[in-house]
Automatic annotation (TrEMBL):
<dbReference type="InterPro" id="IPR048254">
    <property type="entry name" value="CDP_ALCOHOL_P_TRANSF_CS"/>
</dbReference>
<feature type="transmembrane region" description="Helical">
    <location>
        <begin position="296"/>
        <end position="314"/>
    </location>
</feature>
<dbReference type="GO" id="GO:0004142">
    <property type="term" value="F:diacylglycerol cholinephosphotransferase activity"/>
</dbReference>
<feature type="transmembrane region" description="Helical">
    <location>
        <begin position="266"/>
        <end position="284"/>
    </location>
</feature>
<keyword id="KW-0812">Transmembrane</keyword>
<feature type="transmembrane region" description="Helical">
    <location>
        <begin position="53"/>
        <end position="71"/>
    </location>
</feature>
<comment type="pathway">
    <text>Phospholipid metabolism; phosphatidylcholine biosynthesis; phosphatidylcholine from phosphocholine: step 2/2.</text>
</comment>
<protein>
    <recommendedName>
        <fullName>diacylglycerol cholinephosphotransferase</fullName>
        <ecNumber>2.7.8.2</ecNumber>
    </recommendedName>
</protein>
<keyword id="KW-1133">Transmembrane helix</keyword>
<feature type="transmembrane region" description="Helical">
    <location>
        <begin position="176"/>
        <end position="197"/>
    </location>
</feature>
<feature type="transmembrane region" description="Helical">
    <location>
        <begin position="27"/>
        <end position="47"/>
    </location>
</feature>
<feature type="transmembrane region" description="Helical">
    <location>
        <begin position="368"/>
        <end position="389"/>
    </location>
</feature>
<dbReference type="InterPro" id="IPR000462">
    <property type="entry name" value="CDP-OH_P_trans"/>
</dbReference>
<dbReference type="GO" id="GO:0012505">
    <property type="term" value="C:endomembrane system"/>
</dbReference>
<keyword id="KW-0808">Transferase</keyword>
<dbReference type="InterPro" id="IPR014472">
    <property type="entry name" value="CHOPT"/>
</dbReference>
<keyword id="KW-0472">Membrane</keyword>
Length: 423
């Protein structure tokens, strides 16, 4: 009988060929965090599934996000007259993100402890990381007092670009490469530090002049060549430098892997194109009616817009990692972009054909379309996750949120008894 699931049979057969490979060159990870993570995983009973640990970490980030929505639903910063969350909230954000990082790091260790390691964990871990990326962009932008600004949008682009690069690199090299400064380690710790500082000083601290705060303004040569920036702006510039570094190192790793396999080293560059295309679509929508007078950017719709964008991105990179573990072709196109394409074209009809927008003719109608896009994107991504998880668990005979496998008779049993042995 022909399969009716999400994954074709050849893709499912390739799941059994998958094996995780990773390289972590971070000194912080090696000498500080790894000993802590090795101890932390021992606190979890072996009957707790690794994906349950991953989901617990993501839940902490969702709680952090919920507190932002509760205390600052309009996403206004202090310089715009908002009171914002109380300072103690930022400490909870720091704790939640640090715990997320820790739980995300030990899920693989728990998988090996319980005999549940495999492609399902790779997919689930990657999907949760993708969702966390946009949530932390929004939270960090609030902590840095960036609010409704193009800096917030720029941080979204840079953060998603780093994630896309890592996924693209893993697809072509067959291994996850974390350099001396990586998003999952030093990047997260940097954001934790931002939350802690904001908890003590308040978001207004980050509006201080960078050169004056660091006392670099006493050097004439620096004043001549370095522009005056706030601490938050300087933090964004640093993020741009890190992105440039990661672009170079990611392609270098891909280049080496392709040359070693006697494959063309330049073809993978074409597979970077889908990301800037998706970014261009979002920016085109966001820039209506103009960059300075953006309807969405200058309203409370920025947060649901970024969440919609983040879900579309999560679907995009999840399909790439799925193609990696099932040895399928790289996904160029993502159907979720249709919502943003419709939104971008409709919002810019006055610019394109000198006609008024058909859907987003005023702010309430724009809000309705943004929230409908968010809902449809959420349900589409949830459906994707359900179908993929169902296909993989049924084919490999391994449960997602419990430590169970199918025995030879096809019944679900505890892992220790799957082969007829007492646990």
């Amino acid at each position: 009988m022909a399969r009716t699931g999400y994954l074709p049979q050849p893709a499912l057969d390739n799941l059994k060929k998958y094996s995780y490979k990773g390289v972590d060159k971070s000194l912080v990870s090696r000498f500080v965090l790894q000993p802590f993570w090795t101890w932390l995983v021992t606190l979890w009973p072996t009957w707790v599934a690794p994906n349950t640990i991953t989901l617990t970490g993501l839940s902490l980030v969702l709680v952090n996000f919920a507190t932002l929505v509760y205390y600052d639903p309009k996403f206004l910063c202090e310089k715009e007259g908002a009171e914002g969350p109380p300072h103690w909230i930022y400490f909870t954000w720091a704790a939640g993100l640090f715990l997320y990082q820790s739980l995300d790091a030990i899920d693989g260790k728990q998988a090996r402890r319980t005999g549940m390691a495999g492609p399902l964990g790779e997919m689930f871990d990657h999907g949760c990381d993708a969702l966390n990326t946009t949530l932390e962009v929004i939270l960090c932008a609030r902590a840095l007092n960036l609010g409704r600004s193009w800096w917030t949008v720029a941080s979204q682009i840079a953060t998603l670009a780093n994630f896309y690069l890592t996924t693209w690199e893993e697809y072509h090299t067959g291994q996850l490469f974390l350099g001396f400064f990586s998003g999952p380690v030093e990047g997260i710790l940097s954001i934790v530090a931002v939350y802690v500082v904001t908890g003590f000083t308040g978001p207004e601290f980050w509006d201080r002049d960078f050169l004056a705060t660091t006392h670099l303004d006493r050097y004439p040569i620096i004043l001549e060549y370095v522009p005056r920036l706030g601490l938050n702006d300087a933090f964004m510039v640093l993020g741009g430098v890190v992105l440039a570094y990661n672009i170079v190192t990611s392609y270098y790793n891909v280049y080496k892997a392709r040359v070693q396999n006697d494959e063309g080293p330049f073809l993978p560059l074409l597979l970077l194109v889908p990301f800037p295309v998706s970014v261009a679509i979002e920016i085109f929508w966001l820039s209506s009616p103009s960059f300075k007078e953006s309807t969405i950017l200058n309203s409370a719709l920025l947060v649901p817009f970024l969440c919609t964008w983040g879900l579309q991105f999560a679907h995009q990179v999840s399909r790439i990692i799925l193609a990696h573990v099932t040895k399928q072709s790289f996904p160029w196109w993502d159907a979720m972009w249709i919502w943003s394409i419709v939104g971008a074209v409709d919002a810019n009809l006055p610019l394109l054909i000198n006609r008024p927008s058909l859907i987003q003719s005023n702010l309430p109608r724009t809000a309705l379309f943004v929230y409908v896009s968010l809902a449809m994107t959420f349900f589409s991504y949830a459906r994707f996750c359900y179908l993929v998880i169902n296909d993989i668990t049924e084919y490999l005979g391994i449960a997602c949120f419990t430590v169970r496998k199918k025995d030879k008779a096809g019944d679900w049993v505890a892992v220790g008894t799957a082969n007829g042995k007492k646990q």
